[in-house]
Amino acid sequence: MQLTAAPHTRPAARRRGRDADGMAVASFVLGLLGLLVLNLFLGPIAIVLAALALKRGTTRRGRAFLGLGLGVADLVILAVLTQTTNTVSWSF
User: Which residues cross the membrane (predicted)?
Assistant: First the structure.
């Protein structure tokens, strides 16, 4: 008797892979956008999405790590600007 995987397991695994890849790309885009606007909100979202993408085994590990780094940079820039201007918001 030969055991085979259920037919519904492979598409679910592919879907999780695509979801993880999408999260990696979204993390990168939100982290990049967070450098310009709404870094208080977009930075943590980018960090969480990158961590989830890496945990789920994304094939776009580079983008996930870039999103993670950009999310952290968003928060660092916010902290520096908050200390120098004594406000939570900033403008060009």
Answer: 24-52, 64-82
Answer whether 17's CB lies under 8 Å from 59's CB.
yes
In order of 2, 20, 34, 49, 50, the CA distances from 90 in angstroms are 64, 33, 12, 25, 25
DSSP letters along 33-76, please? HHTTS-HHHHHHHHHHHHHHHHHTT-S-HHHHHHHHHHHHHHHH
| pLDDT tens digits, one per residue of 57-81 | 888 899 999 999 999 999 999 898 8
- Which parts of the chain register pLDDT below 70? 1-17, 88-92
Domain locations along the chain: 16-85
